[in-house]
Amino acid sequence: MDQLHRLQVITEIIGEFRTAILLDNEPEQMGRMVLEVIQEVGDPPLADSVLNAYMKLANRESAVSYLDEAIKRLHDQIDVLLTSGRPQTDSIKH
Q1: Which residue in 4, 14, 28, 85 is a FRET match for 74, CA 20 to 30 A apart?
Q2: Could you give the C-alpha distances from 52 to 46, 55, 60, in angstroms and in order?
């Protein structure tokens, strides 16, 4: 899987967690699954944002804010790849 596709999938996963929070659709369960996946990605700041969101589930606004931060980080990384014009296949850039 190239780097661009990987970032897009990770963004979608985090977006699903965000939606679960907003719709109050089992956000604890979704959060545990998403956190597990994101911790394997190897991007500590991204994992911290998702962990903070999970820990703030009682305050939806705060939790969503952390996920918005994570999604922005991923969008920035995607923009860099698109600007460079060549998808990379190595690990996520920090």
Answers
A1: 28
A2: 10, 5, 12
- Alpha carbon of 48 to those of 6, 44, 91: distances in Å? 19, 6, 18
Dihedral of alpha carbons 56, 13, 92, 79, sign: negative
Query: What does the alpha-carbon distance between residue 12 and residue 48 come to, in Å, rounded to a whole number?
Result: 17
d(CA 94, CA 86): 18
Q: How far apart (Å, rounded) are the C-alpha atoms in residues 14 and 67?
A: 7
pTM of the predicted structure, to 2 decimals: 0.85
**Amino acid, res. 40:** E
pLDDT digits (tens, 9 = 90+) for 33-67: 999 999 999 999 999 999 999 999 999 999 999 99
Answer whether 6's CB lies under 8 Å from 92's CB. Answer: yes
Structure tokens at 35: 């956190």
